[in-house]
């Protein structure tokens, strides 16, 4: 039975999971809800996600939510089954460092880019104080990332789940703030590698079709 | 060589790691940071944590930071030597633990951290408490805890059996519960109360918070 993902192809969290499925070569079906209101209804809250969020993944009868947890599940179960892509290394020390970079994404990167996305794209208030402050914060975070990426193509040397997690949010705000990213040579090259991955391009096709 | 943990002894993030070290019976040395300036030096930023944060764990030559990443690393490497299971072997159970770990990050920690900052850290820094932020954060936390009350139906722990997901929730909840006036937000929900009570009964909890 094919894996089913409930989510919107244009949402950053769903794109995170679609990227992961594509990277590992796992076949799946995307089932978008009718609209955003549908995921707040009692039926959805009771059966799919108690916080009314997407994506939710079904693998047969098994259901799991939260994009990063879903991706880890896919790696645990399917890494190496459909292709040779490694998203979490087998070595415990390397995996520990990938985890560390995953938490950098959660704590220092995502909260800041999420604010920019919400204010610029969702609320359409790019001049708000919150958006302006978030851009300044992002500037500092990318300064740290530029040093982290010195001498490396990816955060932990080789491409991993940590790099994958960063890209969907970057995709949405890159074009309106290209200078912020591109003025840092290591960050610029890193983003370029991420956007040119076949799995990402396939994920975008999904977004653009729907 | 013993594991070395660098951190502020009483901070919730350091305690998160100490809880795991104690649950798995791993010997370690705590290198207590006493002044915040120590972790903002060029050397610390280059060698220990690029964002100038603690805790940082040194296991021989291996350095890893971010409390939840450190905890996962300890479980991956040392759980097999312990009788305590923090992370199940079965991929389906383990992934549900991951889901609850993500709930902690997404829905529990953000409002709780804001309350913690306003009620404890702001005061320490001599900043005024923003009551509006406290109120809004408590409302958000209330909604989260209403959902946790449903998740914990017929269960003592989030995924049925005790796991890393439960452990991750405890340190920030502990401080807000004990050191601010907001214990009722937890105690007014019987299953949430039962869950926290169970977490506090564990030997590792008692050992961690005795220190």
From TrEMBL, chain A:
InterPro entries, A to Z: Glutathione-S-Trfase_C-like (IPR010987), Glutathione-S-Trfase_C_sf (IPR036282), Glutathione_S-Trfase (IPR040079), Glutathione_S-Trfase_N (IPR004045), GST_C (IPR004046), Thioredoxin-like_sf (IPR036249)
Catalytic activity: RX + glutathione = an S-substituted glutathione + a halide anion + H(+)
EC number assigned by the record: 2.5.1.18
All residue ranges annotated as the GST C-terminal domain in the record: 91-210
Top-level class of the enzyme under EC nomenclature: transferase
GO cellular component, one term: cytoplasm
Domain GST N-terminal per the UniProt entry, residue ranges: 1-82
GO MF term list: glutathione binding; glutathione transferase activity
Pfam families (UniProt xref): GST_C, GST_N_3
GO biological process: glutathione metabolic process
Keywords from the named record: Transferase
PANTHER family hit by this protein: GLUTATHIONE S-TRANSFERASE RHO
Protein name: glutathione transferase
Species in which this protein is naturally found: Gigaspora margarita
From TrEMBL, chain B:
Record flagged with keyword Transferase: yes
Organism domain of life: Eukaryota
Catalysed conversion reaction: RX + glutathione = an S-substituted glutathione + a halide anion + H(+)
Pfam families cross-referenced by the UniProt entry: GST_C, GST_N_3
Top EC group: transferase
EC numbers for this chain: 2.5.1.18
Keywords, in A-Z order: Transferase
Gene3D superfamilies: 1.20.1050.10, Glutaredoxin
Record-annotated GST C-terminal domain positions: 90-211
Ubl conjugation keyword on record: no
SUPFAM superfamilies to which the protein is assigned, alphabetical: GST C-terminal domain-like (SSF47616), Thioredoxin-like (SSF52833)
Domain named GST N-terminal: residues: 1-82
Descriptive protein name: glutathione transferase
The species this protein was found in: Gigaspora margarita
Taxonomic lineage of the native organism: Eukaryota, Fungi, Fungi incertae sedis, Mucoromycota, Glomeromycotina
């Amino acid at each position: 039975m094919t894996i089913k993902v409930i989510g919107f192809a244009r949402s950053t969290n769903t794109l995170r999971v679609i990227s992961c499925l594509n990277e590992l070569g796992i076949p799946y079906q995307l089932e978008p809800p009718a609209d955003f209101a549908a995921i707040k209804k009692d039926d959805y809250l009771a059966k799919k996600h108690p916080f009314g969020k997407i994506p939710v993944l079904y693998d047969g009868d098994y259901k799991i939510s939260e994009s990063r947890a879903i991706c880890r599940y896919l790696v645990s179960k399917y890494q190496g089954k459909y292709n040779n892509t490694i998203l979490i290394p087998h070595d415990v020390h390397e995996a520990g460092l990938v985890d560390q970079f995953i938490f950098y994404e959660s704590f220092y990167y995502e909260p800041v880019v999420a604010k920019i996305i919400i204010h610029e794209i969702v609320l359409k208030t790019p001049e708000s104080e919150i958006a302006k402050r978030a851009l300044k914060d992002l500037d500092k975070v990318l300064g740290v990332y530029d040093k982290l990426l010195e001498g490396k193509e990816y955060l932990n040397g080789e491409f991993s789940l940590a790099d994958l997690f960063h890209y969907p949010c970057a995709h949405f705000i890159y074009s309106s703030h290209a200078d912020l990213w591109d003025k840092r040579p290591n960050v610029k090259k890193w983003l370029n590698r991420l956007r040119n991955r076949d799995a990402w391009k396939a994920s975008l096709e999904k977004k653009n079709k729907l | 060589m013993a594991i070395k943990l660098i951190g502020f002894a009483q901070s919730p993030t350091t305690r998160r790691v100490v809880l795991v070290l104690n649950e798995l019976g791993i010997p370690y040395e705590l290198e207590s940071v006493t002044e915040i300036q120590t972790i903002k030096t060029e050397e610390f930023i280059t060698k220990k944590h690029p964002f100038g944060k603690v805790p940082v764990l040194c296991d021989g030559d291996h350095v890893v930071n971010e409390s939840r990443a450190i905890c996962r690393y300890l479980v991956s490497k040392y759980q097999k030597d312990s009788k305590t299971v923090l992370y199940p072997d079965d991929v389906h159970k383990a992934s549900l633990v991951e889901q609850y770990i993500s709930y902690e990050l997404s829905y529990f920690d953000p409002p709780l951290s804001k309350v913690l900052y306003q009620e404890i850290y702001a005061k320490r820094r001599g900043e005024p408490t923003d009551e509006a932020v406290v109120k809004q954060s408590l409302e958000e936390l209330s909604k989260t805890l209403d959902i946790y009350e449903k998740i914990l139906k017929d269960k003592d722990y989030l995924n049925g059996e005790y796991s890393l997901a439960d452990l991750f929730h405890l340190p920030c909840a502990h401080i807000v519960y004990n050191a601010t006036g907001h214990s009722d937000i937890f105690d007014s929900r019987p299953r949430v109360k039962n869950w926290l009570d169970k977490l506090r009964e564990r030997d590792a909890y008692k050992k961690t918070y005795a220190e």
